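Escalated from tier 1: magnesium ion holo job.
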Amino acid sequence: MAPRAVVVGPPGAGKTTIGELLADRLRVPFRDTDADVVEREGRAIADIFTADGEPAFRKLEEEAVETALREHDGVLALGGGAVLSERTRANLAGHAVVFLSVGVAEGARRTGLSVARPLLAGVNPRATFKALLDERLPVYRSVAAVEVATDELSPAEVVDRVVDELAN
Ligand SMILES: Nc1ncnc2c1ncn2[C@@H]1O[C@H](COP(=O)(O)OP(=O)(O)OP(=O)(O)O)[C@@H](O)[C@H]1O
Ligand SMILES: O=C(O)C1=C[C@@H](O)[C@@H](O)[C@H](O)C1
Ligand SMILES: [Mg+2]
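Tier 2 regenerated the structure:
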């Protein structure tokens, strides 16, 4: 059993939004490792970061990804930083990984109104977002079979593009 698609990308790329729509389109269930961690821990991600620190969250996330890759045969969205784990990257080998990309301006705009993203909660979210993209872009690309730039597309258009690309 393997997910039909595993969605990766930075915060605000639309992993949850597009993942849910893609699952509807494919008529399969949707699962999100951020939600799995929250459910297992019974606390919000921001609270885990604050109380236990990022490394503790990454460990929980690694476990959540490994379990979901084993159990889930629908669409799976990973947390934005999940690919930073070498173990997770190894676990993703052979899977249909979709990288949703977003530029700094649009990514900061989409995430700017939320306080639920602890990594972007600093004084200059735009600069933080740029640094995050600079670090992660090659990592997302290294695990992905398909890349879709989402800046100029509506969620429905992104899903169309992902379905097309996965069929090729
Ligand atoms: N293609 C799009 N066009 C316009 N808005 C979008 C698009 N994709 C997502 N959004 C909006 O951007 C915001 C972030 O989307 P979403 O929560 O799906 O991102 P995410 O990648 O799951 O982020 P996180 O890593 O924080 O979980 C939401 O308000 C969503 O409605
Ligand atoms: O990009 C990240 O590092 C994160 C993205 C979110 O999905 C959450 O997993 C968490 O807020 C960390
Ligand atoms: Mg999400």
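Residues 125-143 form the longest helix (19 residues).
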